[in-house]
Design brief:
Elements: E1 2-10, H1 16-27, H2 29-32, E2 37-43, E3 54-60, H3 63-70, H4 73-83, E4 87-96, E5 109-117, H5 120-131, E6 134-138, E7 142-146, E8 154-158, E9 166-173, H6 177-189, H7 199-202, E10 207-212, E11 218-223, E12 238-248, H8 251-261, E13 265-270, E14 274-278, E15 287-291, E16 296-304, H9 307-320, E17 324-331, E18 336-341, E19 349-353, H10 361-366, E20 370-372
Parallel strand pairs: 5-8, 9-11, 12-15, 13-20, 16-19
Antiparallel strand pairs: 1-3, 1-4, 2-3, 5-9, 6-7, 7-8, 10-11, 12-16, 13-14, 14-15, 17-18, 18-19
């Protein structure tokens, strides 16, 4: 964290209205500059030094966030036109502090899913045409496909003995080596076995480790994930893999693992049914857990560029006769409109949405998860009634 402090003194002849106007405008800064943390402002009440009449203090996650604020056009205009004309003196002190106490950092965001499939050729064809992914590497029993600049979003493994596709691992990037080391320690302290990354994945990142969640699903955590210089040239494609939706018969145990151990933060809860959790990339949810009688990865969500692109993918699915498992839903929690395709041969359902709610930095730290009843209108606002589970 970066601690930024400023003490200042107004000119003696500064009109009282102008002073109050400046102070009032300073109080709006946390709304205008969302990267600000723990902003405080007040008059100097010290009995030992009266050189400065007021001070404010604020924190930023990084020095880059601080510089973005200081060098922004709106801040420079405020200093030039409002601040300097009535300011007599000021002093600035900025220094690094330990990270925000009390909240361990979680993974940054989802990067990929690893899926074993019985028919590699057909699954690759499906993911290229119906999900818009670009095939980057293919061997006889292994393939990588990507959505944007990240090395891959889907890793396929040929498993001809399987009758349906099966998700065996999910991968999350981590902000830096310090957070990765802390995650490794928290996982070990909680009694979970630290696993080595597969050799293939080791070649694609700087460092990392793996752990199995209470359901046996492998979760890989890493830094330095490889990226391409440019996104795929295909216009009709996703821009990000947002989240997996995991059904589990170990709901409470899984919830504790992902929140207490890995540091995911709860965004919303459908009581007794589903919890939506976010990472440090601040998507409304980068993982969802559903209370179920069995464990499986129910779907993977890809965000596209627009609602128009969602509808174009939907048109392709209708044209080719691909099963649409859930048609055109409006998720109020994540503010996204989506549809779902599901052909078990290729693994989980694939959700294609137009966008996904991103919390502001302030919301990310202060949001309290809503507790909502298990009503279909809390999942899809286009449901007309509490008993209309319809397309689900």
């Amino acid at each position: 964290m970066i601690q930024h402090n400023l003490a200042f003194r107004f000119r003696e002849d500064a009109p009282a209205e102008a002073v109050e106007s400046i102070l009032a405008e300073l109080r709006t800064f946390p709304r205008r500059y969302p990267a600000m943390r723990d902003f405080t402002l007040g008059p100097n009440i010290s009995t030992r030094s009266s050189r400065y009449t007021h001070a404010f203090s604020v924190k930023f996650d990084t020095e880059a966030d601080l510089m973005a604020y200081l060098e922004s056009e709106s801040h420079e205009r405020f200093v030039r036109e409002r601040w300097r004309p009535i300011m007599d003196d000021h002093i600035i002190v900025t220094y690094e502090t330990p990270g925000r106490p009390g909240r361990p950092r979680g993974p940054y965001g989802m990067e990929y899913a690893r899926i074993e499939v019985p028919d590699m050729d057909r699954t690759i064809e499906f993911l290229q045409y119906h999900v818009g992914l670009q095939l980057e590497q293919r061997t006889g029993d292994h393939a990588y496909l990507r959505a944007d600049i990240e090395h891959h979003s889907i890793e396929l493994i040929s498993a001809p003995d399987r009758e349906a596709g099966h998700t065996v691992a999910i991968g999350y990037s981590v902000e830096n080596a310090e957070v990765l080391a802390d995650l490794r320690k928290r996982v070990a302290d909680a009694g979970h076995e630290i696993l080595e990354l597969q050799d293939r994945q080791k070649d694609l990142c700087s460092d990392g480790f793996a752990v199995r969640d209470p359901n046996g699903l492998t979760v890989e955590l890493f830094i330095g994930f490889l990226e391409y210089a440019e996104p795929p040239v295909t216009e009709l494609r996703p821009v990000d893999l947002v989240h997996p939706f995991i059904a589990t018969n170990k709901y409470e145990e899984s919830l504790e693992f992902y929140t207490k151990v890995l540091g995911f933060q709860s965004s919303d809860e459908i009581v007794g049914s589903t919890t939506f959790m976010r990472c440090e990339d601040r998507y409304h949810h980068s993982l969802a857990l559903q209370n179920n009688k069995e464990h499986f990865v129910a779907h993977l969500c890809f965000a596209t560029k627009s609602l128009d692109h969602v509808m174009r993918f939907r048109a392709r699915a209708l044209y080719k006769g691909e099963p649409i498992a859930s048609d055109l839903v409006n998720h109020s929690a994540s503010t996204s409109i989506a549809f779902y395709m599901h052909e078990p041969l290729h693994g989980p359902r694939y959700e294609l949405c137009d966008a996904h709610r991103v919390f502001t930095p302030e919301e990310h730290e202060s949001h309290v998860a809503r507790r909502m009843p298990p009503d279909p209108r809390n999942i899809d606002v286009w449901r007309p009634a509490a008993d209309d589970w319809g397309r689900f």
